[in-house]
Amino acid sequence: MHSPLPPSDTAPNFDPCDLYRDCTLCPRMCHANRYVRTGICGCGPEIRAARAALHFWEEPCISGQDGSGAVFFSGCTLKCCYCQNYPISRGEVGKAISQERLEEIFLELQDQGARNIDLITATQFLPSILPVLEKVRPKLHIPIVYNCGGYERVETLRMLEGYVDVYLPDLKYFSSDKAKKYSGAPDYFQHASAAVEEMIRQTEKPVFDENGILVRGTLIRHMVLPGQKEDSIRLLGWMAENLPKGGFLLSLLSQYTPFFKAAEHPQINRRLTSYEYGKVLDAALELGLDTGYMQERSSAREEYTPPFDLEGL
Ligand code: SF4
Fold this sequence. Notes:
Layout: E1 47-55, H1 60-63, E2 68-73, H2 86-89, E3 95-97, H3 99-111, E4 117-120, H4 126-136, E5 144-148, H5 154-159, E6 166-169, H6 176-183, H7 188-203, E7 207-208, E8 214-223, H8 229-242, E9 249-253, H9 274-286, E10 292-294
Parallel strand pairs: 2-4, 4-5, 5-6, 6-8, 8-9, 9-10
Antiparallel strand pairs: 1-2, 1-3, 7-8
Helix pairs in contact: 3-4, 8-9
Bound molecules: iron/sulfur cluster (SF4).
Iron/sulfur cluster binds next to loops.
């Protein structure tokens, strides 16, 4: 099931961490030599993380009763003005950890009963994480979940083929203007749409274990933003038209909270209304996107953000 590392078309002495010398891991393709300076994501060559602990606030098929084994990595390739994890996405909070320590963390989470290893915003550290996944695989008996903002390069995702069992990407915007305004990434849809197609290609149809935990598949998250329901509906239309029916799950999120710098954008500086969410949900159902999760509006609470206190690192 797992493919070997390095990929067969690379030189035998290929060290994945060489990719940090001229970094093109994400669509920013900023070519930073991260041994000399940080890239746009705010990261150098060392793995940094802010928390590794059981996490109970993912979708039921990810967290289950026992929790996912969530590792929150520092830094991010997106710049969302409403980021709920901004202390870590801006790289302000985080601790450098070695590859050896990351391997131990994965095994400790498994020992604690985690249903999976939930890699949260890991792309900027992939060259360091892939060898750890390769090494730990004989000892790890739970799925690897790749939890990301969807702003990924297909070429980078291909390095993950065979290592990731479940993809958990966001699909945030259809509109380039909105992606630019709210996440600083006008090419978001171009990359994220190709990325989710690649993820679905790798994982194929969702597979659950006897406890209802997703052990293989792609679960696409879309958070409806206030005042943006038309963009959400266009995005859902694209999914219905272009993604294989039954080939993925959809989680339609309503818990938007105007964190961080959302106050700079009056259109999204409020909570979502039931009317807005209902309209988007109706559209999803009309389009046949009925496999997945919807949320109660009352679930918009700040408890979804765990403390980034370096627990478990
Ligand atoms: S991962 Fe970071 S350093 Fe690499 S291309 Fe993206 S923003 Fe630049």
